[in-house]
TrEMBL record:
EC number: 2.7.7.65
Parts of the chain that traverse the membrane: 37-58, 70-90, 96-114, 126-146, 152-170, 182-203, 223-243
Species of provenance: Azorhizophilus paspali (Azotobacter paspali)
Protein known as: diguanylate cyclase
Pfam family, one: GGDEF
Lineage: Bacteria, Pseudomonadati, Pseudomonadota, Gammaproteobacteria, Pseudomonadales
């Protein structure tokens, strides 16, 4: 017959044994200031908070129309709550079930937590990794010696928590440079969580459930419960903040993109152009503006249909993206009107760039018998200074001149 387990495993190891009030008094003479620490109450508080946070995350996941990161975080918190609650039911005749199933749920929570970071970093969930810790714990519990040795269970549980924390931190660390949101808070909390369990691995061997560092420090298990409370709150809100920041950036990107051509719209061109002009003015660098207008666009729509007109706009938008440099700014600022800002380009260079764009446009092949051309007006800071509205006005005058001269032309402002 297998020996009866003494104690428990993972973060919950020993919580249920501290079912009485802990009275802690500071050392030294004088009046005694006492503090009562009731571990079951603390444990139930953590379970309550985990359930509450899990439900809030579940609501956020539903409101976000299926943001998988929030879904995995909700699962992490709710599974952890179930595991902690079940692990606390020791001493009521179901010790073995509590040790086995309760800690399997806690390990499953660790796998889901790692997957939360993994999914946020852009990688798919890996279910063998999610359930691996729980399965390992279940298999080990089939070994009677494992169930009987509290220090061994505590050590294995700590190692699994450290492993999942390290994996979660690694997922965020490896993509930190490519992400546009700050992962530092979540990364820091995962590192601190793993570090705490490294310390627990060193100091808590399960030899004494009532382990005390000194007369003025509460039972070690109180720190385990308190750390779980702080970590659950911190990682939940850090994850929610990361998801929200990324969503806001996506919405902002959509607001600044032209949905048809997938280049910047007028708002993006204006805001980006103002920043670029201010920087060039401070550095004393020239700037040129190209104002491009597709010729006979209304006739193209009327003759070949709006689908062909859309195809012409998309093709020209791609052409601009290929012909300009990374530091240049371009955007669709009107129906068939596009603009480009070229930092560091004087009058001569800007005319050369405009001519290359005009020539490339004349070579576009949309459909047999369908030809597209563009007229371009050029203005530079040498004439207009670094005022965007002035540059647009002068380039518009040059564009009008190119249209008057027969279209498919490049003209430069004379002012």
């Amino acid at each position: 017959m297998a020996p009866r387990p003494n104690g428990s495993g993972m973060a919950s190891e020993g919580w249920c044994h501290a079912i009485g009030a802990r009275k802690v008094s500071p050392p030294g003479p004088g009046p005694s200031l006492s503090m009562t620490l009731h571990l079951p109450t603390l444990l139930l508080t953590v379970v309550y908070v985990l359930i509450l946070l899990g439900l809030l995350m579940l609501h956020a996941w539903w409101r976000s129309e299926g943001e998988s990161t929030l879904g995995y975080m909700a699962s992490t918190l709710l599974v952890a709550a179930a595991g902690m609650l079940l692990s606390s039911l020791r001493g009521v005749g179901i010790d073995t079930l509590s040790i086995v199933l309760g800690n399997m749920l806690l390990q499953l929570s660790g796998g889901l937590g790692w997957t939360t970071s993994r999914v946020f970093a852009g990688r798919p969930a890996w279910w063998p990794g999610i359930i691996g810790g729980a399965l390992l714990w279940g298999l080990l519990c089939l070994w009677p010696t494992f169930l009987a040795l509290l220090p061994l269970r505590v050590a294995i549980a700590n190692l699994l928590v450290i492993l999942y924390s390290a994996l979660g931190a690694w997922e965020l660390w490896r993509v930190r440079a490519s992400l546009t949101v700050s992962v530092a808070p979540a990364l820091g909390m995962l590192v601190l969580h793993g570090t705490f369990y490294c310390l627990r691995l060193l100091f808590d061997h399960g030899a004494s459930i009532g382990l005390r560092w000194s007369e003025s420090v509460a039972d070690f298990m109180a720190w385990v419960v308190l750390e779980a409370f702080l970590f659950a709150n911190g990682i939940a809100f850090a994850t929610l903040a990361m998801v929200r920041e990324r969503a806001e950036q996506r919405y902002r990107a959509v607001a600044y993109r032209d949905p048809l051509t997938d280049i910047g719209n007028r708002r993006a061109f204006t805001s980006g152009g103002e920043v670029l002009l201010a920087r060039c003015a401070a550095e004393g660098r020239p700037v040129a503006l190209l104002l491009c207008d597709l010729d006979h666009f209304k006739r193209l729509n009327d003759t070949h249909g709006h689908a062909m007109g859309d195809a012409a706009l998309v093709a020209f938008g791609r052409l601009l993206a290929l012909k300009i440099r990374q530091q240049d700014i371009c955007g669709r600022i009107g129906g068939e009107e596009f603009a480009c800002l070229l930092p560091g380009a004087d009058r001569t260079v800007s005319l050369q760039v405009a001519e290359r764009i005009r020539q490339a446009c004349s070579e576009l092949s949309l459909e047999p018998g369908v030809r597209v051309s563009v007229s371009i007006g050029v203005a530079s800071s040498e004439q207009a200074g670094y005022d965007l509205s002035r540059l647009l006005a002068l380039s518009d005058q040059a564009l009008y001149l190119a249209k008057a001269n027969g279209r498919d032309q490049v003209e430069c402002s004379a002012d």
